[in-house]
Write a structure and sequence with these properties.
The complex is a heterodimer of chains A (324) and B (216). Chain A has 324 residues and is of the alpha+beta class. Helix content of chain A is 20%, strand content 22%. In chain A, the strands form two sheets. In chain A, strands 1, 4, 5, 8, 9, 10, 12 and 13 form an eight-stranded mixed sheet that branches. A five-stranded mixed sheet of chain A has the order 3-2-11-6-7. In chain A, strand 4 and strand 5 form a beta hairpin. Classes of the chains: A alpha+beta (324), B mainly alpha (216). The interface between A and B is medium-sized, with 32 and 25 residues.
Chain lengths: 324, 216
């Protein structure tokens, strides 16, 4: 008999948008068509663009992907519109709307990923060879940005552990480093060294192999929009958002802890681990609370973004104030 | 050209122009509250904090720029606008604080205290406002008379310190991309430089008068 324990990090079924509503959201939005049509005329900004984007997107490519009920964050998922128009992707500019504005120029098909380092099967992998359709599942995760805002996103992806297991890290591999595309032809943000491009991130191998770590290829049942890190991005929901590197072009297996971009830029502000921790303040943002996009009040930030039950054992015996 | 003419038109125009951003922000929040379409974006508090803070800084810069501007055009009338632009800077700074403390923190004093202690840029922001407060309170003609012109002027030189604190606040809160804050910092630095050499220059002239012609 299956006993489903309601753990602290799990979203209660009752809190999630009813599936019928969620599945029918396009119809609902179409129903709002009249209002949406009027909106651009009134110059009311983002709201009016929804129907157009819904229609344009290659909808339903991942519509049939099974949901993994073990990983369903509580609370209603953030509006698709907000999740795809309020982004940090500095390669396309540092404004929140810059990625949605500029990322369309990035070509994500064909896409290949270089696999290097301490691994049995290195080489250049085509997207489809790395991520198989049969691997995919939907998971609803909380997403907490270091800037003290958060979202709830239904991702489509493959457990990172599945991909890593196929690549076969050798005994030397202790860390994994990921690298984002850096193509000045399509990424206007690269012209200014906000960070040392290309963007790199990394995990300890056991963090990477943790069942929560996901390689996402879609959200809300659809292909990832470019501004969200198409075609392939990391999602590590117990860490601040900048760890969840976008548009991955290289995966390296390393013996030593790799450089990570924000840590390199400001080591006293952004640690390698960057686990969500309300106890460790940041010089610019209180990490004790966060604004869930779409909500007016701040809510309390949970240790490990609410995933402590699952991931705290990874850090047993570590001083998380020092290893922030 | 008389001194009155540009002021008669310019002052009410500037008054209106500087009121518009505040009215816009209030209008957007009212729309937000009514559930109507608005331009505050997906993180309204962030937009509102940023917008009010930028206008406080712009008004402060404008206030500091009026003397050099008056010198550049060789006319005194821009000086008569400083009280208004200075009070606008204070009003926007108050709006900025209200946006952050009221709409963002919902008067959560515990969080505010922690912010003040843990985040240097909050301290710089509060110090800016604290410096602008006595200037706003002594902005009347009566206050000038009561303090005496010399003391009043000395007090109002605090506006330069306020400018430095305000851009420091901006520089410290920027994440990664400092460009916008650096532009404001450069403008403040430029305006300060315009003031400092002039005073040294005057001292040199006075010194030269006392000592006779120097080596040239």
């Amino acid at each position: 008999m299956l006993i489903r324990r309601q753990e602290a990090w799990m979203e209660r079924e009752s809190d999630v948008t009813p599936e019928s509503l969620y599945r029918n959201r396009r119809e609902l939005i179409r129903g709002l068509g009249a209002a949406a049509l009027a909106a651009p005329l009134l110059g009311c900004g983002p709201g009016g663009e929804t129907t157009e984007k819904e229609a344009d997107a290659p909808a339903g490519r991942y519509a049939g992907v099974p949901a993994n009920s073990r990983y369903r964050a509580e609370d209603a998922p953030t509006d698709y519109e907000a999740a795809t128009a309020y982004n940090n992707f500095y390669e396309f500019g540092t404004g929140k709307s810059d990625p949605a504005r500029h990322a369309g120029a990035m070509v994500t098909d064909p896409w290949s990923v270089r696999v290097e380092g301490a691994v049995e099967r290195p080489g250049t992998y085509a997207f489809d060879d790395l991520v198989r359709r049969s691997d995919l599942e939907e998971r609803i995760y909380r997403h907490r940005c270091v800037e003290a805002w958060s979202m709830v996103i239904p991702w489509i992806g493959v457990p990172l552990a599945t991909v890593i297991a196929r690549l076969g890290p050798t005994a030397d591999a202790k860390f994994v480093q990921f690298e984002t595309l850096a193509d000045p032809a399509v990424m206007p943000g690269l012209s200014y060294p906000v960070l040392d491009w290309p963007y790199v991130e990394g995990l300890r191998l056991d963090e990477a192999m943790h069942p929560l770590s996901l390689l996402a290829v879609g959200l809300y049942g659809r292909v990832l929009p470019n501004q969200n890190g198409a075609p392939l991005r990391l999602v590590v929901p117990w860490k601040y958002g900048f760890k969840s590197i976008k548009s991955i072009v290289a995966i390296r297996f390393l013996e030593r802890q790799p450089a990570t971009s924000w840590n390199r830029a400001a080591p006293h502000e952004y640690g390698f681990y960057a686990n969500v921790n309300p106890e460790v303040p940041h010089p610019r943002w209180s990490q004790a609370s966060e604004r869930r996009i779409g909500e007016f009040r701040r809510r309390k930030t949970l240790p490990f973004n609410g995933y402590a039950d699952l991931v705290a054992p990874l850090y047993a015996g570590m001083d998380l104030r020092r290893n922030f | 050209m008389s001194n009155r003419a540009p002021l008669a038109i310019g002052k009410p125009l500037l008054f209106l122009a500087l009121a518009l951003p505040a009215l816009w922000l209030v209008w957007q929040w009212l729309a937000f509250a009514a559930g109507a379409p608005h331009h505050l974006g997906f993180n309204p508090q962030e937009t509102s904090n940023r917008f009010s803070g930028l206008w406080a800084l712009r008004c402060l810069l404008l206030t500091l720029a009026l003397r050099p501007f008056s010198q550049a055009i060789g006319r005194p009338w821009p000086l008569a606008l400083r009280r208004m632009t200075g009070l606008y800077a204070f009003a926007y700074a108050l709006m900025h604080l209200s946006s952050y403390l009221g709409l963002d923190l919902l008067f959560d004093w515990k969080t505010f205290t922690r912010d003040l202690l843990e985040r240097p840029y909050i301290g710089f922001g509060m110090a800016t406002l604290a410096l602008l407060l006595p200037l706003a309170l002594t902005s009347t003609r009566r206050a000038v008379r009561r303090l005496g012109a010399r003391r009043w002027l000395a007090l109002h030189r605090l506006v330069y310190i306020a400018g430095i604190l305000a851009v420091s606040h901006f520089l410290l809160l920027a994440k990664g991309d400092l460009r916008e804050a650096q532009i404001y910092a450069a403008l403040i630095a430029g305006l300060l430089l315009l003031r400092i050499p002039r005073r040294y220059f005057l001292r040199d002239i006075r010194g030269q008068r006392a000592q006779g012609p120097a080596n040239g």
